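Incident log, structure service

09:12 report received: a user says their structure output differs between two submissions of the same chain.
09:20 pulled the input from the user's history:
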Amino acid sequence: MSLTRRTLLATASAAAALPLLPRRAAASYAPTPGPWRRFEITTRIAIDTGGAPAQAWVPVPAVFAPDWAKPGQSRWTTNAAEARLLSDDNDARFVHAVWEGNDRAVIDIVSEASVRDRATDFAAAETHASLAPEARAHWTAPTSLIPTDGIVRETSDRITAGIEGDEARARAIYDWIVEETARNPETRGCGLGDVGSMLQVGDLTGKCADLNALFVGLARAAGLPARDVYGLRVAPSAFGYKSLGAGSEDVTKAQHCRADVWLEEHGWVAADPADVRKVMLEEPPKNLALDDPKVVDVRAALFGAWEGNWLPYNFAHDVVLPGSENGPVPFLMYPQAEVAGRRLDPLEPSDFAYTITAREIEG
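09:34 re-ran on a clean worker, output below:
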């Protein structure tokens, strides 16, 4: 079947590619809101299906946060019989493609998004709308892998015992994760985020989807609205941290999830204890101590701030993929696909046959 082009929104103007290089160098890690940066993400899927029916669900940027993230247009070229941009009940956005009888299922999706550094000024209360009761209920509710009762509640209560104020309690949970967990380089992908099992077994190791989900679960158990933010690193760190950015335009394995916590005087506040542990393990010369200056800097910054070299996709958990013959996925950060009803492993892109590239563009 010949390729057919389906375009969600027309591109307004040609975009010039910019090099994937840091914007500046700095002595310390201190993200500060500044100029917006615009990125183009290309996801290519090519699956040998042997003529069997196939489907793919490919996440695209959907998070709109006026101060730090703005999703843009998406367009695609495919030989699929059908391809549509859809959203689920949790506002995750993805392209759903369906192939019927093709020996090879191919789709190229180009998405744009703009981001910039974000940071909370804790010295000043910000003017913002209060969190609606239904939103508060949603962001404190359990998910399939993030319970808020049992050992999660017990651990949260122990961490926050005697601490007054939502900011102080959130900081206590953040500090506990930085001090008590560890990044496990053997964890597949970004981890699973099975918070209850981590605490029951006593294995507090993993990667971002584990450690930051642990922050979210403990915060929710403490009555603090919190959410995972699933996305993709797209550029090097502007502060010289090799572990906190993409090393090339090939970002196929650069997925990273972060977290937000709602504080009454500040609204949604960034949190990323998992990246503190990543710096400790990976930043040259590696295996850094908590009192190493590089670690001290990122630990101080990553409660309240993060760099705009990362694009957020969504906040969604327990995502039901329309048309799937399998159950929900815990989160949608990787492309998903099925052939003849069999779900492919998104953590094996060489077998799944997908690539993701990123480039910074003008405008």
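09:41 both user submissions now match this output. Likely a transient worker issue. Closing.
09:42 reviewer note: The chain has a mean pLDDT of 92. Helices lie at 133-139, 150-160, 166-180, 195-201, 208-221, 273-282, 293-301, 349-352.
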